[in-house]
């Protein structure tokens, strides 16, 4: 994932998030156990934190510059 | 040359401190949203709110797409693509407004209970209302960034305001990623 350009990486993450949202909706309307919905939501949050919010820049201050 | 290096080091230091401050704010705000989340389960247990799930999916998709365009705007400014930055930012703002219209205009209008109708109303309007308020403040933040962007105040080297507004917008998205299944998909009728 890190080898992709930032623009392409954004597109890939967006597609993954979209697919996960569709899966989540399917789970919800078919009354699947809540734990599955929580799992999908947590995966989505981790993806946003890592690839959209760049949480590593806070954890590792040496990554100080802008992309 | 030495003064330029000092200036760069000083900026990097300010950047690291600003990022830390912003994330501390996110942490404190997350406690507030977490409190509302706990309230939903404390008051309603596993009971479903019986909301329009299709409309929920629609507004969720809109917010998710806006997050993608905000990320795109941040990348564009770091690649010196001014037109792409402005276009992506405008699309983000328009999608944010659409989200607000979807939640406040449509969802609030179609819900089968009002804010004063017991625990269901209190939970639903408080959770969506507080989130919508954050979307609104995010839109104000993005509008200010857009104004500065139109005046070409950001460079690939210095655009922390863009990064901060993008992170704030993604934070609002993260909150909705949890609120969407909790409000629309979980629970039994």
Residue stretches of chain B low in confidence (pLDDT < 50, at least 5 long) are none
CATH classification class of chain B: Mainly Alpha
The beta-strand count of chain A equals 0
Secondary-structure element order of chain B, as H and E?
A: HHHHH
Q: Find the biggest chain interface.
A: A-B, 36 and 42 residues
- Give the tally of structural domains of chain B: 1
Quaternary organization: heterodimer
Strand content of chain B: under 5%
Distance between the termini of chain A: 15 Å
How helical, in percent, are the residues of chain B? over 70%
Radius of gyration over C-alpha positions of chain B, nearest whole angstrom: 19 Å
Supply the CATH superfamily name of chain B. Answer: Cytochrome c oxidase, subunit III, four-helix bundle
Average residue pLDDT of chain A = 89
* Outline type of chain B: elongated
Helix-strand topology string of chain A: HHH
For the record, give the distance between the C-alpha atoms at the N and C termini of chain B, rounded to a whole number: 69 Å
Briefly characterize the structure.
Chain A is mainly alpha-helical and 67 residues long. Chain A has helices at 6-29, 34-52, 56-59.
Furnish the topology, listing elements before pairings:
The complex is a heterodimer of chains A (67) and B (189).
Chain A: H1 6-29, H2 34-52, H3 56-59
Helix pairs in contact in A: 1-2
Chain B: H1 2-44, H2 53-78, H3 82-110, H4 118-150, H5 160-185
Helix pairs in contact in B: 1-4, 1-5, 2-3, 2-5, 3-4, 4-5
């Amino acid at each position: 994932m890190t080898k992709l350009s930032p623009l392409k990486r954004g597109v890939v993450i967006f597609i993954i998030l979209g697919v996960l949202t569709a899966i989540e909706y399917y789970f919800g309307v078919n009354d699947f156990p809540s734990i599955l919905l929580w799992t999908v939501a947590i995966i989505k949050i981790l993806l946003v934190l890592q690839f959209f919010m760049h949480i590593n820049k806070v954890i590792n201050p040496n990554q100080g510059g802008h992309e | 040359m030495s003064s330029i290096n000092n200036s760069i080091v000083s900026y990097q230091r300010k950047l690291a401190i600003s990022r830390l401050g912003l994330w501390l704010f996110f942490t404190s705000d997350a406690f507030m949203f977490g409190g509302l989340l706990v309230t939903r389960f404390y008051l309603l247990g596993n009971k479903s709110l019986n909301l329009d799930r299709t409309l929920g999916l629609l507004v969720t998709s809109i917010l998710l797409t806006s997050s993608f365009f905000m990320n795109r705007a941040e990348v564009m400014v770091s690649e010196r693509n001014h037109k792409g930055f402005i276009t992506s930012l405008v699309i983000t703002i328009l999608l944010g407004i659409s989200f607000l219209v979807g939640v406040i205009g449509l969802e609030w209008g179609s819900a089968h209970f009002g804010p004063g109708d017991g625990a269901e109303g209190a939970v639903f309007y408080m959770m969506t209302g507080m989130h919508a308020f954050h979307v609104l403040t995010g839109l104000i933040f993005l509008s200010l960034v857009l104004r500065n962007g139109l005046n070409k105040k950001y460079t690939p080297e210095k655009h922390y305001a863009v990064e901060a507004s993008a992170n704030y917008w993604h934070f609002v998205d993260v909150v909705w990623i949890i609120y969407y299944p909790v409000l629309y998909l979980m629970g039994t009728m």
